[in-house]
Write a structure and sequence with these properties.
The structure is a single chain. By secondary structure, the protein is an alpha+beta fold. It folds into three domains: 2-22 and 33-68, no CATH class; 79-112, no CATH class; 189-342, Ribosomal protein L5 (50s Ribosomal Protein L5, Chain: A), CATH 3.30.1440.10. Helices cover 29% and strands 11% of the residues. The protein has helices at residues 2-5, 9-12, 16-22, 32-37, 40-43, 55-60, 63-68, 116-132, 206-219, 252-265, 292-295, 299-302, 327-336, and strands at 189-197, 224-227, 242-250, 275-276, 285-290, 316-322, 341-342. The strands form two sheets. It has a five-stranded antiparallel beta sheet. A two-stranded parallel ribbon has the order 4-7. The radius of gyration is 36 Å and the shape is extended.
Length: 347
């Protein structure tokens, strides 16, 4: 091998068969015992000791031609995998790479854990929701005309001409149009927000400190403080002062929090009937609340209740934001995850 390294660079670029014919007189070592008998300088020889190219060799040396003459060159990018640009749902036959893959378009380090509730959603709940909401429409069935959501002008004034339609009465914000569930828009949890209003913090800021510590222990995310927006003189509330805190969880943190609520907190509440079915904002976002006594049932607070003064632990409001387009679809999603609902359904 050392004798091959000692050859000139153009010679080393030739095939091995031609080199063997030109250097037939060179010594070949076929056994390790013979290699051990060779001097140390010969074994440690490297390409750095090769003689430089002469002027004639430089003129005839064409590395690009040697690369072009190779018969076994691989295609440049024909067999490389390219992740799809758009994610068309968890049940589409062509799936993008997970965000944990370094070659993915939306690479994010992690996930470092997989919550049990999220794993159940991906393996069971998503396909079950699509099956439960499937509505068979035979081919050739005429489509139903959607009712008009906006009101027209009565043309009582010349200024009504070419104006945009008006919103319906009593609805300053139009709710989302409910879409049929298919493999591209299966509802899932987007984020969960916990908000605690502490009016006693206007007199003693220690109450706000306890509220932030409680939400931090429950969620694992540092809460941010909120300010009052209006003045209420009889309650001694002034606008612009800190009187609460909130925290938002997304991804695995949201699923872990919901899992603790379903399996650890709700079963401990005495005579708990469930969540009111009338909750919701008509756009797929639901909410419920925890009293101070119910907030203490979280295992993160039970393990160290001496840290929180009993009369300073606040209640909080839980807002669950989903990708559903109606409260009906959001209730179906949360019911499949173990949350019961009771009472009259609003919509």
């Amino acid at each position: 091998m050392a004798s091959v390294r000692a050859l000139s660079r153009p010679t080393r670029g030739l095939p091995l068969s031609q080199i063997s014919r030109q250097t037939s007189a060179s010594v070949r070592r076929w056994a390790s015992s013979q290699a051990a008998e060779a001097p140390l300088e010969d074994l440690e020889d490297s390409a750095l000791g090769a003689p430089p190219l002469s002027e004639e060799e430089k003129k005839t040396f064409r590395p690009w031609k040697r690369q072009a003459d190779r018969k076994f060159a691989l295609p440049s990018g024909r067999y490389n995998y390219h992740a799809p640009k758009y994610d068309r749902g968890p049940l589409h036959p062509v799936q993008p790479l997970p965000s944990s893959e370094p070659t993915a378009r939306d690479f994010v380090p992690g996930p470092f854990n997989l919550p049990r509730l999220r794993q159940t959603y991906l393996s069971t709940v998503a396909s079950d929701i699509m099956t439960l909401t499937y509505s068979h429409i035979p081919p050739g069935t005429p489509k139903k005309e959607a009712p008009q959501r906006l009101r027209e002008w009565d043309d009582s004034s010349p200024y009504h001409k070419n104006r945009s339609l008006r919103a319906p009465r009593g609805a300053p914000v139009l709710p989302l149009i409910e879409r049929d569930i298919n493999f591209t828009n299966i509802p899932e949890i987007k984020e969960i927000t916990l908000a605690a209003y502490v009016p006693a913090a206007l007199q003693d800021m220690d109450n706000l400190l306890v509220a932030r510590a409680a939400l931090l222990a429950i969620t694992g995310v540092l809460p941010e403080m909120t300010k009052t927006k209006t003045n209420v003189q009889q309650w001694k509330i002034r606008a612009g002062e800190f009187a609460g805190c909130k925290v938002t969880m997304r991804g695995n943190e949201a699923y872990e929090f919901l899992d603790r609520c379903v399996n650890l907190v709700f079963p401990k509440i005495k005579d708990w009937r469930g969540i009111k079915a009338s909750t919701g904002d008509s756009s797929g976002n639901l909410a419920w609340g925890f009293t101070p006594e119910e907030l203490k049932l979280f295992p993160e607070m039970e393990v160290n209740m001496g840290m929180y003064p009993p009369k300073m632990v606040p209640g909080c409001r839980v807002y669950v934001k989903t990708t559903a387009t109606s409260d009906r679809q959001a209730r179906l999603l949360l019911q499949s995850m173990g949350l019961p609902f009771y009472g009259e359904v609003k919509n």
